[in-house]
Amino acid sequence: MKLAAQMFTVRSLIHDEASLADVLGTIRAMGYTGVQISGISSVPFEKIHERLTALGIECCITHESTTDILDDPRKVIDRLGALHCCATAVPHPGPIPLMSMGDVRKFAKRLNAAGQALRDASCILAYHNHALEFRRIESKPILEWIYELTVASNLQSELDTYWVQAGGGDPVAWIRRLKDRLPLLHVKDYGIDDSGLRVLGRLEAETLTGRGSSGLRRRAEPNGSSWNRMRTGLITIRSRRLR
User: Which residues of 93-131 are buried (b: 16+ CB within 10 A; e: fewer)?
Assistant: First the structure.
């Protein structure tokens, strides 16, 4: 499994090409050769690609506007082309209501259509979950309905382990459930602070060694689960580590 850094949490450090170069240089020095581009609007994608290429970093996926993905997939395809990247993910339902089974069916239909458009352009559409998709409608989590109502080749998963657990799910069970449509995985551990609030755990020390609350490696490896078959695991880097 390759490990890449997702850049949404360091977006506040990037204001122009110079600051982008600084952040990417630091990420490369940490050993990462892949990134997820998300939340960076101050630098054109062509310039981002130039900097990535110069540093020997590959963009493995992006997060694009949900509205753009659903309403203008051609625009998203063009942006991916500028990055020489073939995958994007719906980051959040955004303005789409998910209050009823009817809402979920409409959303799934639109995801399926957008995914078909991207697949026709040899691109991949994935879905990045939060906790809200674990609210149940007709006895199933919304996330389960989303995957049940879409075609796997049109909608893959970018499962976020932190938000699975925050929503009350079991990250390892969901990895196993989605093993055939899971090219990327957001690896963030789940912790509880002294006040009882959920926090991001110490990822390198806990999640990857299996000592964190998610216990991914400890629980998944003995049974030969899909952990070792993931193509890319996306790591969250907290911005203070780059300052």
Answer: beebebeeeeebeebbebbbebbbbbbeeebbbbbbbbb
